[in-house]
């Protein structure tokens, strides 16, 4: 495949398909709960195992594509995704679900960095200014499409716990062929050896990193809540058991995040962080209202607004941190940022499952939403103070003259 536009499109397709597979189980957690008899806590642990796989991949494989090339690592990611789908097709006991989610996390962790770099490097010159946005759309768009596609298949077609993964295997087979045909974008040096990704943040970047990381923690906690627990909220609290509706609600959250991340590239960093944190606070307040009143409208509105907030905060924060970091340390700082984010997508959600066991899903959900709102409010205040300080600095400089 010598045409750069076609090769880039093939990479975007595969990126989307791999990320789609990571969220396919979302509308199925209620069915797994019925068939295997596990609680909301088990659902959150199964979900969090995915984040564990992502973290392992970020640290273990984060720099391998720079040494071995993009294409071998992408093929490895597709292989992990296919292995995950096979495990889910044959899944019986809970331990198999845990294995499947871990493999899915490995595929996502590899693709998050490697596929983004490959898409940007492969993009033709006429696409260069929007290549990063295209990669973002493939990543977040795939995450959103997973629950939507699975929701339709589970709700309206037979074999609800298996068909989605069979379809995913077919899509992955096409993606593997596509990756195999695209040219390599890295000049692989003979004898180069891959290494573990070091995690650290230089002193000069830490203040910005902390502000951005607080916003990322709040935003990713929201994504974890939506992916792992929202289907339970819909069935247990609001009284809607439709798997299609569950998938659609989660899709809207990710779609809002994707649009916001793309739009955030045109905004000032401080303005985007302030707006994103404010949206997270509003979204969490609406979700608290939804859980208190069993309102589907408030839940959907809260999820969309929170998704916008997550997209603004994460996209802008990551770009700002990367821009403020010396080039030779960019990979380790970016990986550190992603590690913080994926810890945030798993640990709080497990806490939600533990709390639901003691307090009930409704109370635990309200407390969780309140905690995320407080965290987002802290990031909001910190970003607003920094924005005010930054705007005052030029005035002080001018007055000194």
Automatic annotation (TrEMBL):
Protein name: MFS transporter
Entry keywords, A to Z: Cell membrane, Membrane, Transmembrane, Transmembrane helix, Transport
Residue stretches making up the Major facilitator superfamily (MFS) profile domain: 2-388
GO molecular function: transmembrane transporter activity
SUPFAM superfamilies xrefs: MFS general substrate transporter
Subcellular location: Cell membrane
Lineage: superkingdom: Bacteria
GO cellular component: a single term: plasma membrane
Keyword Oxidoreductase among UniProt keywords: no
InterPro entries, per database record: MFS (IPR011701), MFS_dom (IPR020846), MFS_trans_sf (IPR036259), MFS_Transporters (IPR050171)
Transmembrane segments: 36-61, 73-96, 102-122, 134-157, 163-183, 208-230, 236-259, 271-291, 297-321, 333-351, 363-385
Topological relation to the membrane, as annotated: Multi-pass membrane protein
């Amino acid at each position: 495949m010598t045409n750069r536009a076609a090769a880039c499109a093939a990479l975007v397709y595969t990126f989307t398909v791999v990320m789609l597979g990571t969220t396919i189980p979302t509308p199925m957690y209620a069915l797994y709960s019925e068939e295997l008899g596990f609680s909301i806590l088990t659902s959150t642990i199964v979900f969090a195992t995915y984040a564990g796989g992502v973290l392992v991949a970020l640290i273990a494989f984060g720099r391998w594509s720079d040494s071995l090339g993009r294409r071998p690592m992408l093929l490895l990611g597709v292989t992990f995704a296919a292995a995950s789908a096979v495990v889910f097709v044959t899944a019986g006991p809970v331990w198999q679900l845990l294995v499947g989610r871990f493999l899915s996390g490995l595929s996502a962790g590899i693709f998050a960095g490697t596929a983004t770099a490959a898409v940007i490097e492969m993009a033709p010159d006429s696409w260069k200014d929007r290549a990063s946005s295209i990669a973002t759309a493939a990543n977040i768009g795939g995450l959103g499409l997973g629950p939507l596609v699975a929701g339709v298949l589970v709700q309206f077609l037979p074999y609800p716990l298996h068909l989605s993964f069979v379809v995913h295997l077919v899509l992955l087979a096409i993606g593997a062929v596509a990756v195999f045909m695209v040219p390599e974008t890295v000049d692989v040096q003979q004898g180069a050896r891959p290494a573990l990704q070091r995690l650290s943040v230089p002193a000069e970047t830490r203040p910005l990193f902390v502000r951005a990381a607080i916003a990322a923690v709040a935003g990713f906690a929201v994504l974890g809540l939506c992916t792992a627990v929202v289907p339970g909220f819909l069935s247990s609290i609001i009284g809607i058991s439709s798997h299609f509706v569950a998938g659609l609600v989660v899709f809207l959250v990710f779609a809002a995040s994707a649009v916001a991340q793309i739009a955030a590239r045109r905004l000032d960093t401080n303005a985007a962080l302030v707006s994103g944190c404010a949206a997270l606070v509003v979204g969490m307040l609406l979700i608290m209202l939804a859980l208190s009143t069993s309102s589907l409208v408030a839940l959907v509105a809260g999820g969309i607004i929170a998704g916008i907030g997550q997209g603004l905060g994460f996209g802008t924060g990551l770009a700002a941190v990367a821009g403020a970091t010396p080039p030779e340390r960019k990979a380790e700082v970016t990986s550190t940022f992603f590690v913080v984010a994926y810890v945030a997508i798993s640990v709080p959600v497990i806490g939600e499952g533990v709390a639901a066991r003691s307090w009930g899903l409704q109370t635990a959900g309200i407390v969780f939403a309140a905690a995320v709102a407080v965290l987002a409010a802290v990031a909001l205040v910190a970003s607003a103070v920094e924005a005010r300080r930054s705007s005052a600095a030029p005035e002080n400089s001018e007055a000194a003259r």
